[in-house]
Amino acid sequence: MTNVMLVLQERGFIDQVTHEKELVDYLTGENVTCYIGFDPTASSLHIGSLVPIMSLAHMQRCGYRPIALVGGGTGLVGDPSGKTEMRKLLTPGIVEENAAGIKKQLSNFIDFTDGKALLLNNAEWLTKLKYIPFLRDIGRHFSVNRMIKAETCKMRLASDEGLSFIEFNYMVLQAYDFFTLFDMHGCRLQLGGSDQWGNIVAGIELIRRMQKETAFGITFPLITTSSGVKMGKTAQGAVWLDPDRTTSYEYFQYWINTEDRDVGRFLALFTFLPMNEIRMAEQLEGSDLNIAKTVLAFEATRLAHGTEEATKAYRAAAGIFGLGAVPEEILFSSTIPRSDMEFDDFSVPQTVMETDKLEKGIPAFKLFHTVGLAESNSAARRLIEQGGAYINGKRIESFEYLITDNNLINREILLRSGKKRFHKIKANRPKP
To answer: Which of 129, 154, 311, 416 has a CA-to-CA distance to 196 between 20 and 30 Å?
Structure first.
């Protein structure tokens, strides 16, 4: 059995660990079960959830049984972790819909067939709790003094809004989740983001008090880009795992635009490619490094959307942006198509534009007319109003939209009219 601790450490997943020596011993045994919770605050998970998802996938690949716990119950309360204000309370119907979407997305990463992993919903037990018995049996094991010292509580108590009573209960409910999974499935290990440390420790303590047994916790660091931007955040909003909210092409483009300094780190975190190949990729420069980004984009998209969609996204990007074939020697374990493919037959005309002109901004409808994607300004307005105008894969919502240098990706802007009419704007580099 592969040492999962070494795998997670080598790939950059681990921030803090409880009972490290005992945990290492525990992981050498058989029938090891671990879990991570995912609250259904939206109909889709986003890239920010990938570290927990990938960690569960690594656990499974190393021979352990993972539990993905959808928070159908805790989602009705709202986790205060990492928030300076109270989350909007969701109705049971919305929570149920969101939970169904999350289950579908998790199945792309984790094999739930034949009991290889479990997909559970804490609404099954949390919504059935009786208040007074719960307070007597579970609540008595929690110290308020200790709870308010948790980083999550401290941050909220110091805010203007404070911490609501309903949110204060979240730690107790999450701890009870851990206890329930321990009791029902023999789960002794909970994983989560660094903001979950207090909640995880609370669950470990509850198991110790009620069962006189040892449980364990692992937390992950907050992943940001080298520029300090939180993962999954773009100017257009979150990058979702649901293809109806973020298309496979948009998803591919997010990864291919990874900063140079992040390529190796993201290959380690968000793909299953071997670390010896990733270390070699970290030494690449120039066009070879861009090829490594292409592989990263393909592998990440393949995991989230499947090989077929990843290949389509790669073919489209190659046809539009002129990506060349990927040499065999770069990240050779990748399943990315490497031969000279017949890329999607886009004839992409180009216009070179001065950077200072883009800095001032150009109304979208005027630019579409100027480059020939619309016969007139009025036709361009109609195109935009009818939802047929796109910039870098994103639909333009208003003809008043201003296209600026902020839209540049690798000093290029891709305009699209309808399904197959493209035009590329290439910005001149400013004079030294």
So the answer is: 129
